[in-house]
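Re: duplicated header lines in exported structure tokens

Our pipeline writes sequence and tokens for each protein into one text file. With two proteins the header for the second block appears twice in some exports. Here is an export where it did not happen, for reference. First protein block:
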Amino acid sequence: MAITAISNSQYQKKLDDLLAVCRKNLRSVDEDLITRAFKVSLEAHKHDRRASGEPYFSHPYDVAMVVAKEIPLDDVSIAAALLHDVVEDTKIELKDVRAEFGDAVADIVNGATKITDIFESHEVTQAESYRKLLLSMVSDIRVMLIKFADRLHNMRTLEYMPPDKQVRISKETLEIYAPFAHRFGLAQIKWELEDLAFKYLHRAEYDTIARQIKSKRREREHYINKFVQPIRKRLGDEGLEFDVEGRAKHIYSIYNKMLQRSKPLDEIYDLFAVRIVLNSTDNHDCFLVYGVVTEIYKPIPERFKDYISVPKKNGYQSIHTTVVGPDGRLVEVQIRTKAMHEVAERGVAAHWMYKESKLTLDKELESWVNWVREIFEQKDADTSRELLESFKLNLYQDEIYVFTPKGDLKILPRDSTPIDFAFEIHSNVGIHCIGAKVNGRIVPLNTLLRSGDQVEIITSKNQTPNADWEQFVVTHKAKSHIRKWIREESRKRVEAGKEQWEKKTRRHKFRITEDDLQKFLHTLKYSSLSEFFLAIAESRIDPDAAIEQLILRSKQGTEGQKSDALEAETLFAKFISTARDVASGISLFGTSDNFMHQYAKCCNPIPGDTIIGFVTTGEGIRIHRKDCKNVVSLRLTERARIVEVSWPTQEGSDFIVAVHIAGKDRPALLSDITHAISTYQNTNIRSVNVDTRNGLFEGQIILFVKNTDHLSRIIEKVRRVPGVTDVERFLG
């Protein structure tokens, strides 16, 4: 990879500025590494332009400056930031980067490339991109820090993008990058990302709040000075060294308060935040300051949070309290040491330390990263949708602090339940959880826990997870274990259904190919064999009835191969033929003597119909239904040729009928219909033929009934099946 000299004095100044910032903020600087990365990036992007019209190189350069100024780690991060787009957007390949800059820089560039534009693909691709993001984060967190800087610069220059991209990128920023920055403890970056995303998603509301904050700036500064003056004096008297700063809360935070409280900005009083940073290494000094502040101003007890004794998972430590300041206004006060402030501002960057020439994580940050590993390790258990849901959920959750009966602390997301707590202790405790006590009292398993609660889990070896649990648990660990158990139980039921089906087919001595069975399942609206076997196991499908239908289909298929004429025969024609055979002919004047006859095609009479005969010339007697419109005219013109006929009576015999059905299609509808029929007096179904189109279905069912009353009861039962809108005897 050729590295050219910098010919433009403007770019030489940019390089000098970057190196100066690196010297100021990094522990050590490999200036040669940064200079070479600068030159390669400049050369690779020299013909490219951004949407703003600027040379594209301005983007990787500004990203490197963000890393150097706002989340400074090391010179490797600066070099990787300068090169983060070269593999994706230029002819330079990853192997070239690896050869020139080494494995560390190449791996970070590769990780950053993998997780670019994750929202542009379908959901499955998104989920896989998140997996790559998580894996990159676990192996080298510098990948994500560069992505934060990359996203921050893109948001700062978003005005040059088309409106649809502004909305898409802002939504992604608000849903993923801002909460992720919070998890990394990068407070300033999180706030700026939120405000910039809010600006493009809700421009009118953003402008209104920004304008009101700006108009009251002097008033705010005057008030904060008035508020901190007595605090400064008292802390000075105590001999403490400290810095005090006051600010308005950021715009997106104010907007959320307005939504939560349903109040306009003028009625939101706790808009002021004062931070006291002690030049001290003694954590007890923070509590001393808290005592001073609450002596001067009345505290609001429920707003006190001690993140020093119990730090957040990202290592954040501070005391938070809200007090009633002058004129009755609420003011949030944060108290922390300088070291705590470093962690609060730089987050994960403050945790880096050198060890044997390798960048590693300290123990505090290592424990926090466990939530990432938990998600990643569940890869085989979760669908893409579930992974996406859990990933976003983990980013957004605030924390509560609850205790076991022995006093062990467990940190859980807000809105956690006893089930979440049980799975946090151990997966077996969660699976066998049957009840819970919170602060000594038995509570429902969907009770929301609060910080300070003491939770005792009651287990039973006979208890297993309830599918409803998934609706109210919030931790990824609980959700994944519940889903895994449900899937395993479903698999067992599928196996039981499959075994039942195979026993039935062996008993019927019936064999069917998997392709033919799949086609049959399609008519039943089952998408897979697993769904079909599960329906059998849960008694939603009668396997005997299904086998009878398949046997009939098989016979019809064989007959169709023998004769093209039979292949074209309609379902109704088959039904009529079968029905007449079962009835064993026609009785003339009450006798069962055989005589030449045929059935009129105009009305297709079938057993159970009231019929009449018409004597033809040379073709015997033609049989009509008595209500046939042609018979009405024959009675007027050919009365002498009308003869009385009937179906022969057979005590205890069934006759075959066809039922026409129609309605709105839905999964397992046909199974419900056949179940309704077969469970009434063991009614035997001969065949089913149903077609669906545009969410509607229509078809016929051929079955045996004892009499017309039996048929009426069947029709009434089918009519009550959800989705069925029309049921009537099929008369052609």
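Second protein block, exported in the same file:
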Amino acid sequence: MTQRLALASARHPVRTILAWVAACILAVAAIALLLGDALTSEAEVTNNPESYQAYDLMNERLTRTPETDPLTTDVVLVRSSTLTVGESGFREKVDALLTELRATPGVLHVADEPGARSERAIAISIGLNGEEGAEEVIQLVERADEEPFDVTTTGEWIVDRDFNKLSQSDLQEGELKFGLPVALVVLLLVFGAVVAGLIPLMLAIVAIMTALGLTALVGSVTDLSLFVVNMLTGMGLALGIDYSLFVVSRFREERSAGREKLDAIAASGATASRAVVFSGIAFALAMLGMVLVPDTILRSLALGAILVAITSVAAALTLLPAVLSLLGDRINSFRVPFVGRNSERGTGAEGRFWSAIVRWVLRRPVVSLVAATALLLALSAPVLALETGQAGIRTIPDSYPSKAGFNALEKEFGVGTTDSVEVVIDGPVGEPETRADVERLTAQLRGNRSFRQVSVDYHEPENLAVIEALPIGDSRDEAAFQAVRDLREEEVAGARVLVTGETAEAVDYLALTDRWLPIVFFFVLALSFVLLAIAFRSLVVPAKAILLNLLSVGAAYGLLVLVFQEGIGNEIFGFQKVEAIEAWVPLFLFAVLFGLSMDYHVFLLSRIRERYGQTGSNDEAVAHGIGSTARLITGAALIIIAVFSGFARGKLVMFQQMGFGVAVSLLLDATIVRSVILPASMKLLGDRNWYLPRWLRWLPNLHVEGPGR
């Protein structure tokens, strides 16, 4: 099929290219008309945790309106080092701010009287309609912040505004300003020619555009996280470039061997394109693991990655052969000095550096295998101390408004956010025994050093009572999480106790990721094992591939703990030391790393299997397969490392962790795993690498390495 597609596209190149141009035009139209309305910054889980149950209960029983029960989302803090709150100048400042806030667009509610106060500070409670209101309040606060007053703001929407600005900035900086230029340099070095280096980039852009169009169509049916665009772009660069690398390099190899242009395209379609199809399937299967998790952000990220994998494979199978047909040997135009001529032979020649390493390893397989495996296991060891959490306002740079407001609020009143913890008691709260227990719990919270500003409201006709309190410090601190967990152990006679609020939602999310991580592991590993067993007609190959990938993933987890939790070397990279790894990062890393690693593994093994079919020599097949593909796989890995290193250079700790984890894992995978552990293990296993028991001989022989091998 892949050969027929390649030939059909090569024989009708103009028609094929015009079809892709039309697809891009339709995609741009879909993006312009639909994508903006399809994306949301909101996130939710769909497993109905305790925090959601409590919200539903309050919404069902209590009639809350902005008039009867105005919602406080944010706070404006006024401080002075020279005036006290009782002095006329201080009061005039507060009154002026109250008047301006009530006239500010996006401000739904302003408290009639200031809330918390100290000798030299007053907090004004406000309710905002979203990030639009947050922007207006930030501008107002900046104007009001003048001597002798220090005026700051923080809260739900102010924090969300800063998080979204930071995340979009970090992602764009990583992809466009760092990853893309480095990717272009690596492509020029790998291909040794400007034209050959630009083609993979062009195909990646086409794949990204068409995938964004498909995303817009899906978004017209269901809301998607705005981060889907960043995930799709990053993975599109990775996959689009990778698949083009594989096919173009094979085409150049066939041309160097003397094949005619169409014959070279057909040979590439029968070999490299087959590997691309299986690589794409392996990547999509890994991403499917994230679809299982009942979290709208992870599902959106998985959807974007799967869609761009589909369009990248489609472009490599059809658009690329058409472009190669039109260019022919002009693909080698504008040769890069020193590396150009050697690169034109594609995967037909072995690189001296990597071949020397592989052949050294093949002569000493036991020592190499033991030493490399021991190193990766040592790097993986810190994973035993892995703690997951959720990034709070403490991780935002001090220069952002929400962080300045948080620091000021925490210094004055001990609490830094407006994120309250709500204890919902569902039962006959008018009954003496139940009411006494509610009062006991309220008094207990007032005496708990983890909470401030404790209040209780009774709704006897609705059989409901709500205790509300503010956690000290950051609502995402581990101390706040533990306080909520302890609260959930409390009981009230004759009633059901549910704890909700932003902190409780975070606790529920941590429990969700902890529960689903092993499920995702098993699902992805099982499907990948089946795919590789079918692709290579072997049980040893998939088992070994899974073990090798787990080694690199484990090392990435261990280094994350070492650098971010333990703070060893974090200052060298400019990273923050934190209490825990972001809860979604281990899930995301596993899916992405496993998908990309399997991507390279399929391509490499297909070359080894092809050579083994030609020579019957296991050692020769391993040496040639690794030596001839090492430059490509290393280049492809370096491109992704560059993109994710750009993320790691950002200011948000969650993206620092994500970028560092992906970059270090792929670096280990492309070097130690591919050049040492894989060849050493294949040398020791010999022909047993391709073992398939008799009772599985019915498996289809798909010849991922090419027909007739």
